[in-house]
Amino acid sequence: MAAVRGAQNNTTDTDANFAESPSEVEVSANPKYSKFTEVSKYETISWESCYYCPCLKFGCVSDFVKHLRERHCTREGGSFVCRYGFNGVCPSLPLDGVSDRDYDAHVNKYHVNQNSREMPPEWSVFSAAQNLPAVLNDPLRGKQLNLFTKKWGGDFVEKIHIPSSKHLPEIAYQDFEKYISKIGKRYRRHDHFTMQQNSNREGESLKCNGIVSTSPTHVVSLAVVPEIFLKETLNLQNASTFSQVFPGIMEKSNGEERRKTGRVVQEKLSHYLDIVEVKIAQQVSQKSVSFFHAMTSQDAIMTEMQEAARRVQALRAALRRLHKSVVIDTFRVLCFAKRRQNFEDVLDKLCLMATVHKTQPMLQLLLGTQDYVAALDLIATTQEILTQELIGVHCFKHLPMQLEEMEKLIDKMLTSEFVRYVTGDLNRPLSDMLKETDSTCAEEDKLVCIVMGLLRKKNFNFVDTYKDEAIVTIRAIIKQQIIEFISRSETEICLTGTGEEVQDLSISEWISLLGKVTVALLTILERVKAVTMIMRQTTTAAAGGSNHGIQSMGVNNETAVNLIDSEAFLTESDQEYVDQKLIELLEVVCQYCHERCANLVASQSLEKATATAEEIHRLALLVEEFSDGCEDMCGIPTVPLKMALKVQASRFAKRFHNERKEKLALLLDAERWLKVDIPNEFQKLIDIIGENGISALTVKRSSTNFLTGEYSYRHCLETTNNPPASPLLLVESVPYTLVGSVLLLVQMLCEYCWYGQYLPIVAGYLSRNVVDLLRTFNSRSCQLVIGAGALSVAGLKTITSTNLALLSRALQLILWLLPKIKDHFQSLDSTSVGGYEAVEKDYHGHIREIENKIYTIVQNCVASELDKWDARPPIPSNSFRLILRHLVRLHEAIGHILPEKQMQTIYSVVHRNFKDKLREQLLRLKIANNGGPQHGVVTSELTFYMETLETLKALPPEEHDDDILENIWDF
User: Fold this and answer.
1) Is 485 inside a domain boundary?
2) Predicted confidence (pLDDT) per residue in 836-875, tens digit
3) How far apart, in Å, are the Cα atoms of 317 and each of 97, 309, 310, 518?
4) How many domains does the chain have?
């Protein structure tokens, strides 16, 4: 501004003006621009940018308002909350929000029309806040004692001195002295050289005009020239422009003053002109080298362009000659070849159109020969040709729709033909023997054509259709067999609503009916399996499988059908899907057959009837044969029919067990516990069991009256053909004296074993029933004998040692038979022998109780007599006579019943008890081993006692030499 004022006052103080930098002079020349620049250093327009989205710039206010509404505003209900502020909070708007209109007013007032605004504070380490829970829970700080006395702030947490790292050395100023001394001289030399170049450059620019000061710092600047002279639209005809160029010239009234003013203006204008010329001269002098270089380069370029133009003319002339001599004829040959190719393409298209035109007659011919796959392939090929080769041909515009309708018609035709074929094949009449005499599958070629067509259409629902038809056929076959069986029956029978449950049929009639039904169902299943196998072969062929793949399914070349030769159109996943559905079809049909047969077995008539073992056996054979046939077809076991058979068999086994249990209870109640003679048939039975096991009895069942369940011992005794009965039963050369109830129990156990082998399906159930029967015999016999229940039930006067011995011997016979029964049932069902160990333990305990009972009886007799005994003549005394009489009677009662070893055990215990009781009596009588009269009496009594026992031979051999005369005095 000082330079402008100096120009106006015609001063020559230009040194100070040119001391300013060009930028400062230029800015100071325009007061308006200087004011705007001064403001812009500290202020920015509010709506041009966003504080919190620095990458966004806005060209107008509406864009900025829209941005604030979308990004920095939230709507809560019907109110608008401004979030344009630090941490998403506007300091000038209530937190509860305002209406839409008030929000626009708020944005215009505080964010759009804001004259100045401060930038948000930059984040620094002092802006960080401390988390109070983190400070309080710091495990490194421990418990702070003065927590509640501190003030919140930077000093809330004690500052910790962080020691310097031992890995980093300490850096001091002395470490840089060597570098500074080395670089300092170079830097000063460089700085001096730079300043000298700048001063020389400024001096040369100032020497351009004589009116300019010769000061080396003088710089010519265009800022002295007013801005109006630099505009392109300078028009002196405009009054305002004229007044600016010639300020005040029209206001002077005096001519002399006007001339002076004109001279001043002329000098100013000359000065401005000199400044511009100086600037032009500076620019020319600075760019002179480039100018002369450009002129030199232009001459060289012009020379090169003339040479290039000459070469282009020569090249064009050569191309014209080449075009006339070579290109025209060659191009004409190519055109003729292209035309011939076009004619051939048109001819091919016409032939293709003629072929497509014959598609419908060809389809009729293929459908007439049942070649559905070829017809579908022809339709697909034609559709592809129409969409690719003949697209846009007007005469074929309706043909695609016709082909689609034809394809739908073929699909319906295939479905109806398949249903018609399946119905006819499954409902073919059965032969008299219910076995197929001709081919299992009728019209195999027709089936292959139909299935191949369905596979070509991806219509896999034909498997479900065949399954439904097979189930309907099975239901009809069962109903037909029932009706035919009833029509041949002589009794008057009423059918139910379903026609499958018949009332008042006997078990044998039911089994006969089931046999016919199973044979018929097996025939139907053979047909289903044959059709299924053909479908699988067809599927394999449709997927591109070879003969080796077909043979891998278990099909021989002799039984394989002739398949249609066609390309593979099924994917591997589709083949697996169809094969899986065919396998499931066979399984479902077999399962349904079993369910229907199970309904027959478990019908109301079978529940009312009482089946015998032979009938259950026949039923089991039928079920096993039918199950094996179904399992051979589908490969999986079927459960419903076997479960129904098991229910019937378990009902028979339950009834059989209840009858035997009731019969055993009646026998035990009527048992008088006396020995009976053993029939010869029973001895043979035991001999067979001892030699070959229980399973050997099944061979002689038909000829042995014993195993029929009608055996009675009186009958055997009265039969003249049988040998006389024996008083003893020899079991592996060991004699047994038994009661009648145990013989019948053995008979029942043999029946259980035989029925377990005759009916393996109930072997486990019968094995558990055997355990129950043995426990019943054990508990009831214990109640009757040891518990003295036979006194009131059977009318016995007393329970003698003979009764006890007979019961013990009966239990021992059962214990001998028990392992053989266990082994027998274990061979039939290894999971049904869990309770035999407990039964064996109970029987051994029962035998010990019987022995203890005998001990108690003898001990009571001996104790009562010894209590009355006194060591005085006569010898032997009456008490010892009675004691020995009891021992002799005991031996007479049980000696022929119990084995010798058991007898010796009993008498050994009785002998020990006698010595203990005698010692007590001697102590009570105060008799000592002193050789006195009483000692002699005791010796005589004991001598008589031992002689009698030796006569009985009841004691074990090692106790015959018992020195009782000496050890009786060991108190």
Assistant:
1) yes
2) 899 999 999 999 999 888 888 888 888 888 888 887 888 8
3) 86, 13, 11, 105
4) 5
